[in-house]
Structures are given as structure tokens and as C-alpha cells.
Write a structure and sequence with these properties.
single chain; alpha+beta; DNA Primase, Chain A; 2 domains; five-stranded antiparallel beta sheet; 9 helices; 23% strand; globular
Length: 257
């Protein structure tokens, strides 16, 4: 995971406990005793600035990895790996009931710029939610499980490309658009959900997305085991690692240019 992915995936309270720090959560923030001046510092537990901390008294500020580096006397790589091993937090368990909420999704010029037509957006339940929702300012994608049950909306902020989704949704347990594929035919796997939808417009291509995660989880690999032919695009370091993961499955793998 890179810097941003690490900050978003680390559970703030778990990380502080790992460092021997007692924290009290109030809303989106956790308050704790500053390691430099013993005054009250604050760290954000949710949102765009998740796991960034600040002490109003001594003005010390930074991110959770820096805090681990200072307390544990570790370099960036070892501090980051410690958090990934001990403090990553995704919701456990799959969603078992169909989502009853329906967003009023509007076609937006942002989608047009991404090469996604209005017809495709309507067909697959993609658009910018009308009104005030947790996905305001995002492109929202309607997500189904592998059986086709509607389970959530997954958002990408138009401003900075960051993912936004409800806490009950664990992206590790699903593959976007998996419910529409035929496992006997070749399926293309991509990390880019916009690229996924672009290819979905081409009726001759079956495509799925792992919600931009820099790896394939065991649950996602289990879904891919049912696919007879899998094609991947080696356009990022994460994708190259995923190619190695898929290569271990009993399936035919192809590198898509």
C-alpha cells in the first residue's frame, strides 16, 4: 500500500493501542495525550484526513506512521508494515440483506470526460447522487454481490479520486461487475473502476474490478477461481503483483496489452 492507502485502511484506535496510547473517540476524532508535551492532541479517525494528528499546544503534527516511527524508533517501511500487520481494519462478514436505499443518480460531465456514456451510466446505476448524501461530490457506483443482490453504493470523489463507502461494506469481499460475467468466457480484471465501466460499454468484453485495492484478497481470489480465463493489464506495480497471485490459481491467465 502507498501512503494514502495506509492512512485510510489503518484503524486509528487499534494503532494508538499498539503504541500504548489511550484514546477517547468523539465523533470523527480521537483525543489522546501528546507524546511530546502531555497536553491533549487530536487525530482524525474518519474522512479525507484520516489518521493525521495535531497538538494545539506544542504544534506537533503529522500522520500515524510518523507517530509509530517516533515511538518505536522505526523507519518508514518498518513502521508502515507494523501498522499493516497489526492495525488494518475492514468490516468482517458479507452483507446479507438487499440495500433498500436508492440514490437519485444524475449523469455528470465528469462521466463524459471519463468516456462513459449516459446510456451506460443509466444501465449500470452510475452517477452523481442528487441531494445531500455521504457520497456528495462523488461518482456513485451501484454494487451487487456475486449473486446479483444490490448491497451498497461505492463512491469516487471527483475532486481527488479518493474512494468513499459505507463502513458496512468491505471491498475485499467483492469484485465489481462479477455478477454479470460468464465464468466460462475470458474476463478482464482491472484496478481502475472507470476503465472497467468504459470496457463494459463494449459488449464483447467481460470486465471486473477489485475496487482499486493494491492486491487481491483471499475472497476475491476465491471468486476468480471460478473463471476459466483471466486477463490482466500490467500497468502498475500493484497489477504486476496481482498477476503473480492469479498465476497461482488453476486458471488460464493472459496479459492484456
Amino acid at each position: 500500500m502507498n501512503y494514502t492507502e495506509t492512512l485510510q485502511s489503518v484503524d486509528t484506535l487499534k494503532a494508538l493501542k499498539l503504541l500504548g496510547i489511550e484514546g477517547e473517540q468523539k465523533g470523527a476524532y480521537v483525543y489522546y495525550k501528546c507524546i511530546n508535551c502531555d497536553d491533549q492532541a487530536v487525530i482524525k479517525a474518519f474522512g479525507d484526513k484520516k489518521n493525521l494528528y495535531y497538538c494545539p499546544k506544542c504544534k506537533d503534527k503529522g500522520h500515524i506512521v510518523k507517530l509509530v516511527m517516533n515511538i518505536k524508533d522505526l523507519d518508514w517501511e518498518h513502521a508502515s508494515n507494523l501498522l499493516k500487520d497489526k492495525a488494518i481494519s475492514y468490516p468482517s462478514g458479507k452483507i446479507t440483506t438487499e440495500l433498500k436505499v436508492t440514490y437519485d443518480l444524475q449523469y455528470h460531465k465528469f462521466l463524459k470526460e471519463k468516456g462513459i456514456t449516459e446510456e451506460t451510466a443509466v444501465k449500470y446505476g452510475i452517477g452523481v447522487p442528487k441531494g445531500k448524501t455521504m457520497l456528495s461530490g462523488c461518482v456513485a457506483f451501484t454494487v451487487h454481490d456475486e449473486k446479483g443482490m444490490k448491497i451498497t453504493y461505492y463512491g469516487i470523489r471527483m475532486k481527488n479520486g479518493k474512494p468513499v463507502f459505507h463502513n458496512s461494506f468491505n471491498p475485499e469481499l467483492y469484485l465489481y461487475n462479477y455478477n454479470r460475467i460468464t465464468t466460462e468466457n475470458e474476463v478482464v480484471l482491472t484496478l481502475d473502476i472507470f476503465k472497467c465501466v468504459q470496457w463494459m460499454q463494449n459488449e464483447g468484453i467481460q470486465v471486473i474490478c477489485n475496487f482499486g485495492l493494491p492486491y487481491l484478497s483471499s475472497a476475491q481470489l476465491a471468486l476468480l477461481e471460478f473463471c476459466k480465463y483471466v486477463a490482466l493489464t500490467p500497468d502498475t506495480e500493484s497489477a504486476k503483483h496481482m498477476i503473480m497471485q492469479v498465476a497461482e490459481l488453476e486458471t488460464y491467465i493472459r496479459i492484456k496489452k
